[in-house]
Amino acid sequence: MSDPAAFNLQDELQSLADPAQYQFDHEQDLSQSTPRALLQDILPSLASHPESITDPVIFDTLRSILKHADVVPGPVMSTLLDSLLEGLTGVVERVLRDEEGYLAGDRESETEDKRAPLEMYAFLLQWFVSAAEKVKGSSSSAAAGSLPADDADASPVAPKVRKGRKTGGGVAANATRTPAAKKKEAWSWIDQIPALLTVICKTLRIKSHRIWTTSPERDVFITCITRPAYHISESELYMKHPPTKLLLYKLLSLAIKHHSHALHAQISILQSLQYYEHLAEPMAELLGVLAKEFDYAQLGDEVLREVGGRVFGAADSRGPRSFSKFLVRFSEICPRGVLKQLSLLLAHLDSESYPMRMAMVEVIGNLIRELALSSDPSLSTSTPTDLPQSQPPKKQLTQLYTLLLSRTLDLSSYVRTRTLTVLTKLCDLPTKFPAQRLAMTRAAVEMLEDKAAGVRKGAVGLLGRLVVTHPWGLMHGGLLALGEWEERYRKVREELEGVEGGVGVGGEEEEVGEEHVKVEDGMEIDDEGGDTEIEDDGEGDGDDTDDDSDEEMPSDPNISSETSSAPVTPKKNKKKKKKKSLKPRKSSLNLESLKTLTNEQAALAALESNQILHLRLRKKYYAEGLNFIRMVEGAMEILTQLLGSTNKAEVLEAMEFFRIAWEYQFDSAELGIKKMLHLIWSKDNNSSTSEDGKELKGVRSRLLECYRSLYFDPLPDMEPKQQVNRIAKNMIELTYDATLAELTSLEEMMRSMMDDGQIHQDVIAKLWQVYSSDKQLPKPQRRGAIIILGMLALARRSVVTERVDTLLRVGLGPLGKADLTLARYTGLALQRLNGSAKKIKGSLLDKTLRIEMDNPIFRKLQDAVEHPCRSKDWFGMAEQAINTIYALGEHPDELCNTIIKNLTRRAFMPRPKAAAATDPDAMDEDQLVGDKSVDKTEDGDVTMTQDGSVQDEKEKDVGDAFELSQLLFVVGHVAIKHIVFLELVEREWKRQKDEKTAGDKQAAANSPNRAAKDGEELDQVAGNAEDEIGDRIAGVRETELLYGPESLLAIYGPMLVHICGSPHKFKNRTLRAAATLSFSKFLCVSSQFCDQHHRLLFKILETSKDPNIRSNIVIALGDVAVSFSNIVDENSNELYKGLSDGDLVVKKNTLMVLTHLILNGMIKVKGQLGEMAKCLEDPEPRIADLAKLFFTELSTKENAIYNNLPDVISHLSIGDHAVDEETFQSTMRYIFSFIAKEKQAENIVEKLCHRFRLSEDPRQWRDIAFCLSLLPFKSERSVKKLIEGLQFYRDKLHEETVFTRFTEILAKARSNKSANKPDTELNEFEAILEEHKTQGAEDQALEKRVEGKKAAAKKRATKRTARKKQATPVDDEDDDMYL
């Protein structure tokens, strides 16, 4: 190949397609000579004369080394690359010099001289790049992310990919190698790539059209010289190397811009997007560099057109992901280029592939951002040119927002979530779009009820961002309290009506009103006054002395302006609009009077017009703000429900929203904050990672953070004393109007914070100061202080141990007697003296503190209980006082005996006549108390008073109903607390016995001869002793408490039975409630007493009209069941009746008690599970949620739902308890979701088929068929059992609904059938079903015809009978009988 022209680049490239078969003349055998020696022979020639590459021997030697690159050492390849790059550089520099000094001459010979070396070097470099990854010792090549498919020899290095990535690869890996390793492994391909790309970039600076005169030849060379770039880009590892990536962009841009490489590059880019997902964003960046730095946007337009014309199916995965990333990245870099081709790309909004729809959502968001941030709104080229320059951006923005909001209704939850994410980012734009923000708010509120948790989370996040970035904060600081905004709107509306009703507004008002409707831009509305002063106000300069305008006008651009350029654009239009607006005013006024107006009158008219415009803008401003506030307030209920979601990310987002809403003073935010408090019981306290890669904190820790930021974190610029006062005030306010559940959750949170040391001692001191203050404080404030102190004492007992005297002086002193709720919580705080150590199951250790009975605490408690009082709050106080006595007292029964005796004397002591005369007044007080609560005393008081007057006449004694209620309440509570105390005594005896036994064992162990024998005896004695202790305590409870001759409680058992059993005598509701509650507690004491009198309790449950009594009985029955399960189990049907109670509280308590009893195995389910199933569709959400929780827990029990399923179906389908079909279907759909085992499904199929045989009602047929259709039919056995049961339901198939259900079952069976099995059996079954349906329909038609003929015959017989004039009465009776 002495002639350079003999080298044909196109032919050589085609031959190189298969390197193993590539043949050339002077191929060297590397087995006889080393590659290093061959290379050393030709290097001097190449170094001195780069054009010597055209020498056939040199060229073929280089080709020989490259052909066997897999056996060539790395250092040799590195030397080879260096020589090739130096040679090509030398040729290129010569070419560039020739071009600079280009003169007329022998151009053809020069061209040939330049052309051959360039083509040979390009050929060798392309070959080198493809062969470099085969080189031994190439750590970076082993780490390459992808290799060409046609390189069969590349497969051996594939396993090294992970190794290279693990060690870091490339430069980082080289940096950590030892010098010896570097010397041994000098070859690193990734480090050679930048130098290679730099030389190719330099090569592309030549003017190729002067060397290659024909386009095909030039295209071959450019394709060859750029092929290394494309090959390198196919490796994800190389594209992560920033220098390599930037050089690739530059190289390809030069080829496209100066060497007509655009078409080839377009094809390569599209292929890269199709097959290499990692190239999606780099290709977008390449087009961005080409458009911005090389001023060549045409290629980007062409690629976008190609992408816009592609169609992606729902099954495509890799292609849509890659193209979607490309579109998103390109819209970020060149949004204007995408905007020009948007009409073509919008077709992907309807694509079957959801990744493409997601990409288009992000693209639209990027375009909105670009248009909103653009300072020149006329840059858009996709809008009509005949519109004014200020209109296209606004119109485009409106259209883009509309498109974006329409995606909130997309079928894919991923698209809906991405839409919300994009909208959330758009909230941060400096320009606010009030109309669009309201639409976004409306969409977000609607999506709070989406079925996908990710969508709901996105909607909550969007609402929170809308609140934080809202544009209605310039005038009043940004707070969004609904009441304040309504008041502002009302005032400005009244002010506007007053001004518009004034003299001289007339046509000016109409003209302004029209402009207000037509023009949305607030600045243009503001300019309608036609006065330069108005322009200044509209621009917010604030030079006007009018306070209102100075305050209002800075918000004007954000009231209705939709682009940030609004303050700039109106300047040209102002003059035009002034002229237009002045003309109608002239036409509406008398021309003669216009000439006579003075300058003062003209200024006054201008000011009036300006005032109207200001007021209208303020009214619009407030109206938009009110709309936003009302929409957010309307969503609070749903947001509160989301706090109970099972999705962690959703809960955290809802918590963050309520924190934001509370800071912006939304009225309903406090409800969410209180609801959030219950999350303190969440067990999830570990951080995790969400789907989008963000770290999610634990729910509990996030809750504590929220409450700290809202209530406990110090505020800047506030004195320490003020900080303490603020924190204490916040803690106290948390207790205001709190329910028992909220106080329990707050207690847990305070305990947790106290354990972590987050409550400062100064705050505790301030709480004590509030509690013990001698000033007249609001009752809730003092109560809140002691509530919080009691909560803190759970974690640290010293909080109350150091202030016992204060507790006795305040809570159980005069203040406590005046405020019984304060005394109640004081008693609760005193119980903290005992500590909060929880009993460990099976442990005999007792850490409780017991105090001698002569302590002042017990005297104060006794005084509080015995103090005369007629308030309903006394019962709560007395309960806690007795709890405190039993929690702290060494011998609580002694003190309680005294209290009961004293209350008995007071209740039954003879009353003087004066007292009897004033008794009605006392009962009136009780009535007032009753009016505030359920303990109404009106009927009872009147009856007791009347009885008293009658009995006084007969000189008989009468007691007071309220005092008797107090006595019975204390008796019942002492009884139940004494049972608990007996358990503690039993545990203490066992502990003492255990210590003694342990001591005896130790002593026995010291005597080796008798150790074994004594040990066995001691174990036996210890076991017997524990049994004796248990039997002794049980005997006390069973026989002595209620039946012992010396028992005080035994006196009151018959009294309670008498009062509860005589409602006609004892009509006082407070007395009946207290007696029933105490009677219920007595039933828990003794099985003998319970067995004798439990039917009375069920009778009261059935007949009582007081929902509070019924509710208390239901709860008491749960306690009785714990103590004596057999007695309640026998009468469980009565308990289930509470599920049908009309009162919500009774129904809820019944459901909770039954849930507890059933799940813990205390009562057996005997076919009543259908009543529980009815609650699944209860209209009250709390009842339905509790029922769902019950069935979810029941499903964890072995076969519990499966065993009771037939009874549930029968209960709901037929009989007195049946529900409508729709309710039946929704209920069974939920219950059948727990039938997961295939064996269970098979048995249910068989049972349901047999049930068809016994049913005659079409409603039953439909219900059974529906239940069958709910089964999965995953196995052949299920289908087989269905086919075997054909004889039982074939005569029911004429019912259309039944046949439809079996059709659904067939479709389900076909979908679950394995592909390799024929459909013969199912097809035959389908044919049989069709046949029996047709036959059944014919039978039904025949039966109807027979019935019709019978009816006609009866009718004719009746007519014949009527014609007979003389008919006997017997005949008439017979006719009537047949009729």
List keywords for this structure.
chromosome; 1379 residues; histone binding; 0% strand; 2 strands; two-stranded antiparallel ribbon; CND1/NCAPD3; disordered C terminus; mainly alpha; mitosis; cell division
Helix proportion? 55-70%
Specify Rg, calculated over alpha carbons.
Answer: 46 Å
What form results from the Cα inertia axes?
extended
How would you state the average pLDDT, rounded? Answer: 78
**What distance separates the N and C termini?**
121 Å
Number of helices: 71
Give the strand line-up of the largest sheet. 1-2
Give me the secondary-structure category: mainly alpha
Major sheet: 2 strands, antiparallel
Q: Would you identify the regions where 5 or more consecutive residues have pLDDT less than 50?
A: 137-185, 375-391, 503-597, 913-957, 1370-1379
Family: Belongs to the CND1 (condensin subunit 1) family.
Subcellular location: Chromosome; Nucleus
GO molecular function: histone binding
InterPro entries: ARM-like (IPR011989), ARM-type_fold (IPR016024), CND1/NCAPD3 (IPR026971), Cnd1_C (IPR032682), Condensin_cplx_su1 (IPR007673), Condensin_cplx_su1_N (IPR024324)
